[in-house]
Amino acid sequence: RLDSCQKSLSDYLDTKRASFPRFFFISDDELLSVLGNSDPSSIQVHMLKLFDNVKEMQFARGNKVVEGMSSVEKEGFICRTPVTIDGPVENWMTACEDEMHTSLKDITKEGVFNYAKHERTSWLKLVLGMVGLVGSQIWWTWEVEDSFRQAKEGNKYAMKILESKLTGQLNDLVAMVRDKLDGITRKKVNTLLIIDVHARDIVDGFVRESVMHAKEFAWESQLRFYWDRDVDDCIIRQCTGQFRYGYEYMGLNGRLVITPLTDRCYMTLTQALTFKLGGSP
Q1: Can you tell me the distance from the alpha carbon of 75 to that of 183, in angstroms, rounded to the nearest whole number?
Q2: In whole angstroms, what is the distance from residue 92 CA to residue 83 CA?
Q3: Cα–Cα distances in Å, from 107 out to 5, 83, 114, 133?
């Protein structure tokens, strides 16, 4: 009899996990404590297990709506449409996840399009850390491909000019790091420095090796970010792989230093995903 009760309970919890798959990341006991509590804010203690770097949801109106999310580093964003807490927990948590993706897509789009309107260092202070990274990578991709286009039209020094510009941007970030900054901005700058050093090194390699065409493998093999106006979304390309950006809130997670080995790891993973295979970093 005990076994049949245990099996019924497991089946019940599995239906909840099928409705909101992130519940697979927490144990049966933890899931039961969430399901057995009428207070929506009881989910807070499990947020870091359910999401990559969401520590808290910002509840409002007497825990009737979710207005935003914040990370361990205390960076956060406000949902464009507050999520009403209604019905089973798996339903409103799914709505929160969907709203996170929708809001971050809008926030990212605005950040990318505002990049050209501000000084880069000022822009970085205005946007979320993850928007600063993806926005910089989208514009870097465009600048490199624009340099290839200029080279095709006869400007042999286009890539050299871009290399000087990227070095200048790096120096600006180094100068920022030496100034007094709040903790959130400092983490943004430190992470962007890692990306920028790699971006400058790639362009420096193109100058030394006279890579002059966007179809060359040296460029095709890079992780390239585009804002595709046709689908109105951020598209990531590498070799034959093409993926949509996920808009999972990352907070200020930081980044590993990018080496030739990590580059090859990314390429292996993107090609595996292209062929519908799995991959573990």
Answers
A1: 10
A2: 7
A3: 47, 17, 11, 13
Retrieve residue 265's tokens: 């790891």
Question: Which one, of 244, 220, 213, 215, lies nearest residue 231 by Cα?
Answer: 244
Residue-by-residue DSSP string for 217-271:
HHHHTS-EEEEETTTTEEEEEETTEEEE------TT---PPP-HHHHHHHHHHHH
Radius of gyration of the chain (CA): 22
Q: Which H/E stretch holds residue 141?
A: helix 129-152
Tokens representing 61 are: 């109106």
Which stretches does DSSP call E strand in 72-166? Answer: 76-84
Q: What tens digit of pLDDT does each residue of 146-187 get?
A: 999 999 998 889 999 999 999 999 999 999 999 898 889 999
Q: Exposed (0-12), middle (13-18) or buried (19+): which is 183, by Cβ within 10 Å?
A: exposed
> And the tokens for 196?
């920028």
The encoded tokens of residue 220 equal 């095709």
The tokens describing 16, both together, are: 């909840």
Give the residue among 118, 122, 138, 141 at the shortest CA–CA distance from 130.
Answer: 138
Residue 236 contacts residue 245 (beta carbons within 8 Å) = yes
Q: How many residues does the chain have?
A: 281
The whole-angstrom separation of Cα 193 and Cα 171 is 10
The answer to whether 84 and 98 are in contact (CB under 8 A) is no
Q: Is the distance from CB of 107 to CB of 229 less than 8 angstroms?
A: no
Give pLDDT tens digits for 30-89: 999 998 888 888 899 999 999 988 999 999 888 889 999 999 999 999 999 999 998 899
